[in-house]
Amino acid sequence: MTQVPERHAFVVGVRPQKRDEYLVLHSSVWPGVEQKLLQCNVRNYSIFIFGDVLFAYYEYIGEDHEADMQRIAADPVSQEWWTHTDPCQVRIAEERNPGSLWQPIDEVWHLK
């Protein structure tokens, strides 16, 4: 039986003066960042941009989302990546995930 993935979506703003830098960074995401995401059961990760708003979506196929997210947060390569990407971002939504730039958004419909 195939496990049904959990779907996760988030939004954040991109600072207008850092928009080009952010896009350049994501034109070639570091292999170590991608590898850690895959090791931590993240699949189909996409980031979209509309004006100065970033929308991210991924599917999680593991058993313990919180533990896997902590493994990513503890990863030195991912931490270094964020020193480049975080300055490009600004919180635009209510703070549902305290301290995080990216804020989760609710799914309202899904075609099965």
Textual characterization of the structure:
There is one protein chain. By secondary structure, the protein is an alpha+beta fold. It has a single domain (6-104), classed as Alpha-Beta Plaits (2-Layer Sandwich), CATH 3.30.70. The chain is 33% helix and 27% strand. It has helices spanning 19-26, 31-39, 65-74, 76-85; strands at 6-14, 42-50, 53-60, 89-90, 103-104. Strands 1, 2, 3, 4 and 5 form a 5-stranded antiparallel sheet that branches. A hairpin with a 2-residue loop joins strand 2 (42-50) and strand 3. The longest helix has 10 residues, at 65-74. The radius of gyration is 14 Å and the shape is globular. The protein starts with 5 loop residues before the first strand and ends in an 8-residue tail after the last strand. The model has no long low-confidence stretch (mean pLDDT 95).
Overall pLDDT, averaged?
Answer: 95
Largest sheet: 5 strands, antiparallel
Count of individual domains: 1
Question: Which percent bin holds the helix content?
Answer: 25-40%
Quaternary: single chain
Helix-strand sequence: EHHEEHHEE
Strand content: 25-35%
CATH superfamily: Dimeric alpha+beta barrel
For the terminal residues, how far apart are their CA atoms? Answer: 17 Å
State the secondary-structure class.
alpha+beta
Q: Number of helix segments?
A: 4
Poorly predicted spans: none
Q: How many DSSP E strands?
A: 5
Under CATH at level 1, the class stands as: Alpha Beta
CATH architecture term: 2-Layer Sandwich
Shape: globular
Computed over alpha carbons, the radius of gyration is: 14 Å
CATH topology: Alpha-Beta Plaits
